[in-house]
């Protein structure tokens, strides 16, 4: 199986390494030239910090020009949501009429964009339960666990389940499991996507706006209350979509996870705002607002987060200037 990872930063490179170890022919495709060159020449260095510290070195093809990779059987999309359409349009050489397109991006809405481009029959969607940080060109720090009952590093589904698509997805599942990631192809993927959305909606843009780490925000006055309101709206929308998230349980689990650990890091959107970049708000809290509108469910807290995020992103050049 020939697999391209479109968007091969920290997370994309890690996912690509698993496909490679599982027996696929992998092509990393990303505009970060120094990163791609280092991997192509020396391999990807992975510093693993869970389950005993160790270092892996994985050889993969890595290019900035999609034409060097050519048509692939599977293309995994891991660019940020706001770049999905432009990234795909700039990488047409990776696709033909048989290419299966799998989004493992954060949030909700990317599969809809891809379905408009390729048609529903060729699109799959899923969620990652992994952590990866780019240390420098060709080197990442990776954290993930495979020993937690009922938890998967990758959980994905496809828009259709005909015989050919199911066979392909089962093959993807096997390759990833053989490569070291606990992976499941099942109809429950959307449940896991929305479950992860709780984390992203609670911490990404809220930490960006408050300039606090995840732990600092939760412990700040009204921090926990803000998280609770975000989760309440998210669960109401999920339930309307037929996704059985129980608010009381999700809030209890979230509260426990936040009080048991300090969480001393800044999520990706906070780093984006610090560096005056666009964020994925429209695929995170924006997804709650958007889906809420479809079902007539009011989501004032998430709506406000979206509006403030848009204001911040569109006024970087005049902030703190008289």
Radius of gyration: 19 Å
Structural class based on helices, strands and sheet pairing: alpha/beta
Query: What is the CATH first-level class name of the largest domain?
Result: Alpha Beta
Low-confidence spans? none
Q: Architecture of the largest domain, according to CATH?
A: 3-Layer(aba) Sandwich
Helix tally equals: 13
Q: What is CATH's topology name of the largest domain?
A: Rossmann fold
Beta-strand residue fraction: 15-25%
Count of domains:
2
Question: What is the number of E strands?
Answer: 12
Please outline the major beta sheet.
8 strands, mixed
- H-E order: EHEHEEEHEHEHEEEEHEHHHHHHH
Give the helix proportion (percent range).
Answer: 40-55%
Strand order of the largest sheet: 5-2-1-6-7-8-11-12
| Ends apart, CA distance between termini | 57 Å
Tell me, what's the shape? globular
In CATH, the homologous superfamily of the largest domain goes by the name NAD(P)-binding Rossmann-like Domain
Which whole number gives the mean pLDDT?
Answer: 95
């Amino acid at each position: 199986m020939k697999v391209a990872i479109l968007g091969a930063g920290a997370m994309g490179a890690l996912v690509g390494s698993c496909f490679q170890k599982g027996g696929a022919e992998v092509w990393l495709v990303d505009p970060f030239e120094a990163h791609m060159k280092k991997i192509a020449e020396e391999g990807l260095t992975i510093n693993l910090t869970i389950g005993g510290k160790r270092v892996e070195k994985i050889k993969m093809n890595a290019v900035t020009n999609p034409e060097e990779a050519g048509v692939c059987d599977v293309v995994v999309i891991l660019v940020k949501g706001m770049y999905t359409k432009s990234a795909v349009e700039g990488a047409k050489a990776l696709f033909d009429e048989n290419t299966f397109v799998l989004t493992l991006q954060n949030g909700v809405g990317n599969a809809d964009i891809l379905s408009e481009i390729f048609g529903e029959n060729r699109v799959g969607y899923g969620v990652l339960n992994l952590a990866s940080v780019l240390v420098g060109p060709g080197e990442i720090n990776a954290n993930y666990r495979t020993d937690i009952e009922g938890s998967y590093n990758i959980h994905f589904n496809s828009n259709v389940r005909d015989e050919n698509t199911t066979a392909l997805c089962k093959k993807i599942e096997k390759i990833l499991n053989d490569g070291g990631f606990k992976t499941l192809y099942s109809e429950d993927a959307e449940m896991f996507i929305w479950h992860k959305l709780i984390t992203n909606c609670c911490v990404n843009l809220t930490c960006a706006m408050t300039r606090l780490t995840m732990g600092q925000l939760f412990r700040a006055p009204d921090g926990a209350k803000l998280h609770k309101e975000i989760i309440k709206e998210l669960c109401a929308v999920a339930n309307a979509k037929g996704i059985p998230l129980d608010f009381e349980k999700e809030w209890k689990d979230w509260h426990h996870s936040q009080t048991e650990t300090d969480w001393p890091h800044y999520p990706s959107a906070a780093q984006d705002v610090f560096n005056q970049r666009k964020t994925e708000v429209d695929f995170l809290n924006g997804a709650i607002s958007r889906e809420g509108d479809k079902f007539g469910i009011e989501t004032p807290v998430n709506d406000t987060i979206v509006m403030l995020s848009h204001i911040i992103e569109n006024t970087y050049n005049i902030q703190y200037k008289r």
